[in-house]
Amino acid sequence: MSGQDQCERAIGGSLVRTQGVTAPSGFRATGISAGIKASGKPDLALVFNEGPDYAAAGVFTRNKVKAAPVLWTQQVMTTRALRAVVLNSGGANACTGPLGFQDTHATAEAVAKALSAWGTETGAIEVAVCSTGLIGDRLPMDRVLAGVQNVVRELAGGLTGGAEAAQAIMTTDTVPKQVALHHDDSWTVGAMAKGAGMMAPSLATMLCVITTDAVADADALDRALRHAAARTFDRLDIDGSCSTNDTVLLLASGASEIAPSQAELDAAVLAVCDDLCAQLQADAEGVTKRVAITVTGAASEADAVTAARVIARDSLVKTALFGSDPNWGRVLAAVGMAPVDLEPDRISVSFNGFPVCIDGAGAPGARDVDLSGADITVTVDLGVGTGVGTVRTTDLSHAYVEENSAYSS
Amino acid sequence: MSGQDQCERAIGGSLVRTQGVTAPSGFRATGISAGIKASGKPDLALVFNEGPDYAAAGVFTRNKVKAAPVLWTQQVMTTRALRAVVLNSGGANACTGPLGFQDTHATAEAVAKALSAWGTETGAIEVAVCSTGLIGDRLPMDRVLAGVQNVVRELAGGLTGGAEAAQAIMTTDTVPKQVALHHDDSWTVGAMAKGAGMMAPSLATMLCVITTDAVADADALDRALRHAAARTFDRLDIDGSCSTNDTVLLLASGASEIAPSQAELDAAVLAVCDDLCAQLQADAEGVTKRVAITVTGAASEADAVTAARVIARDSLVKTALFGSDPNWGRVLAAVGMAPVDLEPDRISVSFNGFPVCIDGAGAPGARDVDLSGADITVTVDLGVGTGVGTVRTTDLSHAYVEENSAYSS
C-alpha cells in the first residue's frame, strides 16, 4: 500500500514531506555539526518535548547484540515518558562494552544538565539516546559533550529545526526523511527517520522519532506504535541484515489539547510510518528498483509475510530484478524454502500484474514481461488459504556491493 | 578442514583431481553435446555401473519445489539400486508440471531401452535422472532422446570418459569438478559435481555422482553418504539460495571385491565430498574470496553451524569481505540474529587468526588486519559451550551481481 493510499484511508488528514518532528505543537528540534563525523557534516540532533504531556512509547531492534544507546533507552522507556531524544550519526556506539554504555549515560546526563540550566528541570532518565554509524568504535566523547552544549543552546534560541534534525541523523542516506500528517481535527503527527542499509524487519530497522501534539497516554501510544511498526517497518527488508541500533520512538506533547480516538491515532501513526518506509525504500543503498513482494492465498497473514520475506531476501531473485529479468523460476525456488504451508503445483506468480507462472508451471510470454521500470510488483499466490502480506524490498545491484565493500560503514 | 587435511585423516588413501567417476572399477561414463544448450557445449552425461553390485544411495534438495528429475529419482531410489545415471545441463526441468515429469520418465525409458539393446538388460526404474539449468522451461525432448542414443553408443564403444561426463554437466561452472580417492587396500571412490550458484545447504546443493568399486550394501552407502553430506555439502553456502534440483548419488559396483569397514567407507566418502566442496567453493559465481566461517564455544555443534550459516549469508559481511574490509561489527550484528544461545559480552572474533573483537568489544589494531588474500578465515567464539562448526562461503562481489543479473540462468 503506498503512503498516498494509506493517507486517503486515514481519517481526514494530509501528508506533507516538507515538515517532520516539529510539525506538531509542543516540540522543538535542531541538528548541528559536532565534529563526530570526519566529514564535518551534521551529526548531532535533539528533539525536545515542551509538554504539557510527556507520554512516550518505543520499539527496538530484536538483535541480541544491542548497542549501548538501545540498552540505555530501553531502561529509560520503563518510565513511559520522555522529555528529549538526542541522536548522533558518525558512530553506532555498538560493541563498545561497559565504557560505551557509560558514554551513552554521560550523554544523557549532559543533555539533562544543559536543559535544566536552560530552565527546564530534566533528569537523565527522561532523555533517550540514539546512535548510528560504524559498529565497534568508541564515540569521540569530547566532541559529543561539547556538541550537546551547542545543540541545547540552539534549541534555547527558539529555533524549531525539524529539517536540520533529520539531516543530522543521516549516514549513507542521500536524502533526509521526514513527514507530517495534519489531521483535520487540528492535531498533528510528525516524524523523521534515517536508514539505508542493514535494514531488515525486526520491529524497526533504523532510527525514527515520531512526535504528536495529540493528547494520548503511554498505553495508547504504545498500541499505535506497535500496530504501525508491525505493518510497516517490520515489512521493509532491504538486505536481511538487522541493525544493533534500531529504535523507533513516539512522543506526545498533548499541546493540541485534542484527544483522538485510538483508531484515529492508530491510523495517523500508521500513515506516517508507511510513508517513511516508502522514503527509506526509495533511498536504500544501491537501489535501482523498488520492489513490493505480495503473497496471497497463504494459510495465514503470518505465513504470507514469512513467504514474502524469504523471496525478498533471495540474492538470485534480487539480482534478476536488478537485471530486469522476469526469471520467475528463482521466485519459485525461493518460496519453496519458506517454512510455510504450500503445494508446489498450486503456486502462481505475476510480475507487474502479468501472469508468469500458473499452477507451478510457466505461462505463455513469461520471459517477455517488461521489468525495465523502477517499480516492480511480484505477486505470489500460494493457493492454500486467504492470508495476504506484502514485504517491501529493493534489487541487489552493483551499487549496493560498491557501497558496502568500498569502506567501513 | 581442507581436502588435504581430510585426506590425511582418511585411512591410507590419496586424492587425485585428474580422475572422477570412472576411477573405480566397474564404471563407465561419458559426456556429449546433444544440442540442449544453445551454445553447442557438452550437455549430456551418462554414468553406467557394470556391476557386479548395483547398490546405491541418494540425498536430495529439501526445497518443497522439486524438479521433475528429483521427483523421478526419489522414486527410483526406493529400490536402493541403480544401473545408470543420466544427467543433462541446459535446462533444470523444474516447474514444468506433469508434462515435465513425463519428459524425465521418457528419458529414463530411452536410456534403459538403449542399454538393453546394447546387451545390458535394464529397466527405467534402474535409471536416475538429473537436470540442471534454467528453471521453468520444458527440455527439447527430440534432442534429449537423440542424445541418449548417442551417449549410450559412445559408452558401448568402451570409452571411460569420466572427464567428459564432468564437463557435460557444467552450467555457470568455469571448470569441471572431479576427484578420486585410491585407497591403499585397492578400492577406490570417484566423483564428479557441478554447481556454482543457487547453492545453500539443504542436503546437497548441486548435482554430484559418486562411484566406488568397494563392496557395500545400500545401508552402508546410505550411512556413508548422509554422514558425508551433513559435514560437507550441508555446510557450503554460497548465496543462501537452495536449488530445486540438488541431487547427490552414490553408486557401488563391488568390482574390487573388497569390503571396507563402515568407518573406512565413511572416511573415504567424506574425503571425496569435502574435496568436491572445496572445488565448488573455489569456482562459485563471482567468487574473489574463499571464506571459512568457524563458530566455536557454542552450546552445541548444531548451534555452531546455525550461527556460522547466519554469518555466511549476511550480505553486509560478504560485501565487506569482498572489499577486504575487517569490519567485524557486521559479524557481531549478523550473529546477534542467529537463533542460538549467546551472550553479546562474551563473543570474540578473529580474522585470519588475528583477534579483532574480544568479549563483545573491539581489539587493538582490529581495523588494520590484512584481508587482501583470497582465503579468509573468520572465527567467532560464542563463549557459552563447546560446540564447533564451520560453514564455507564466498564474498559477495560485483561479478556475482553481474553473472546473476545479466541473463537468465
UniProtKB/TrEMBL annotation, chains A, B:
GO terms for molecular function: L-glutamate N-acetyltransferase activity; L-glutamate N-acetyltransferase activity, acting on acetyl-L-ornithine as donor. SUPFAM superfamilies: DmpA/ArgJ-like. HAMAP family: ArgJ. Substrate binds at T171, K194, T205, E285, N404, S409. The active site is at T205 (nucleophile). Heterotetramer of two alpha and two beta chains. It is found in: Cytoplasm. The gene is argJ. It catalyses: L-glutamate + acetyl-CoA = N-acetyl-L-glutamate + CoA + H(+); N(2)-acetyl-L-ornithine + L-glutamate = N-acetyl-L-glutamate + L-ornithine. This is Arginine biosynthesis bifunctional protein ArgJ. One of its GO terms (biological process) is L-arginine biosynthetic process. Pathway: Amino-acid biosynthesis; L-arginine biosynthesis; N(2)-acetyl-L-ornithine from L-glutamate: step 1/4; Amino-acid biosynthesis; L-arginine biosynthesis; L-ornithine and N-acetyl-L-glutamate from L-glutamate and N(2)-acetyl-L-ornithine (cyclic): step 1/1.
